[in-house]
Amino acid sequence: MLLKSVALISVLAVIAQSVPATVKVLPFVDSSLPVKFRQVIAEAAPRVPSNLASYAFGVDLSVPTSLSQLQCVKQAGYSAVFVRAYNPSGQGSFDQNACSTIQNAYNAGLGTEIYMTPQPSSSKQGYQQLDEIYQGLTQVGITVRSIWIQVTSPTNWPSNANNNVNFINSIVSRARQYGMTVGIYTSYYDWNQITNGWSSIGNDVLLWYWNVLGGGVNGETPANFADFRAFGCWTVPSVKQFAQVEQVCQLTVNRDVYAAGTMLKAADAVQEDGKMYTGGFISGNQ
Amino acid sequence: MISFIFLFSLTSARVIQSNPIGFETIEAKPAPEIVNNDASYGNAVDFSVPTSPAIMTCLKKAKYQTVFIRGFAPAGSGSFDMNCVGSIRNAYSAGLGIEVYMTPQPSSSYQGYQQLDILYNGLTNNGITVRSVWIQVTSPSNWPNNPTANVNFINSIVSRAKQYGLTVGIYTSQYDWSQITAQWNTLSSDVLLWYWNVLGSGSSGETKATFDDFRAFGSFKKASAKQYAQVETVCQMVVNRDVYAVGIPAAAAEKTSKTENGKIVVGGFVGN
Asked: β-strand B79-80 against B66-73: which pairing, if any?
């Protein structure tokens, strides 16, 4: 082994000697190395305007919450929380935090919607991942009326658009079988990158799109749908994420708007059968 | 249990088969005319298709001052884009400024610096002197899911270009940079930025032809160029449209393409 390394080193030394002095031998240390990655730190979000009649505000999050935090969120003028119900790490799994967050939101008088961040590279198929969410929530007495499927971050998806379409379709079909309303959380660029502009997902599928100029307050776009342009099969959006990675009530969240008229009152939803519902607060009718 | 699962999967399979997969096709339509009177911005188009002398003359008449031409194509292992030689000559004849960009192939057996060499040699062998080069870092789905490898790859190109004495710029967006390099922020500050932001393709997806929507990211504190429109036709050619910083307006008039020792010079038209 030692002999081999010695042989290798002497071969390299000979090669190094034969390279003309005027040409730098690669790899060489560049001033931009060692590689550093910028970390994004959440700063406090601006206030929700009190007189904006046409849009309602929500936050979306994937962190655990407490009742007092969500009461604070309600006080701050938000009407709904979009909660992550599926964690993509590893093979993907039901996000247990969703149970308590939905409970807390219900007690705080906030509407809830759930979203899943699926794991397209999992050994579990799309419909199996949806099943895990459905079972996870129904087991704790939560009735799921709608679900949003996150189709963002092209780098986390395989490069084969057809496979990605089939994977998403598997989730959408299963959700429909359960009688849920289905929505996709994406952007026109994500949709192009991941599904190659798939335009036949079905008219019943809603759209939650995002557009920011960067993270934090400095990167926000206006809290309205003015920057929406039709793509895929969508001609109108239902929700827009206009701010990313900000602090609201000490929670790191993204911020969203949706058409206010479509929202059911959280209280009404509670009355039905005494059961707790998640979803159904956003409709496609504009 | 097994039959239940079987039944379920049959059900799922049936639903999938009933929806044939349709993909949106994007058709390029004519671009609006230039009405921007702000002298601190130059107008440009960028493209990767072959051109003719007539097209270049038409672009000049349509008030575009500079063209960004693709000099390296990513298909296969990546190669010198032969179309660029003719386009550069046509642009020069029409009196347009010329910049060259490369769309590298991160999954190639050629390393970053080798791809830059291919571009550099391709241009110099055709009597073209290069002053600057722009490296395209977009479309995360075309890059490996490995930010460190991607950073090393890009660095290899940047370093080689600097060895040749070229000004280097990156053509990217905040989201592309975040996806592909995990927000790498130690690229040296002399590397320029050409960023893009559109709401969709075509004229309905344009954003403003200004740098107002630029937000600092990575190591980039300012922008030198912005692509604000994608996939439109100008002079019957499919292009994207750009604005770039020309610095002092008086100096802009002097920035026409020139020759050195009989060779066409490309690059250096985009100021800081």
From this structure: antiparallel
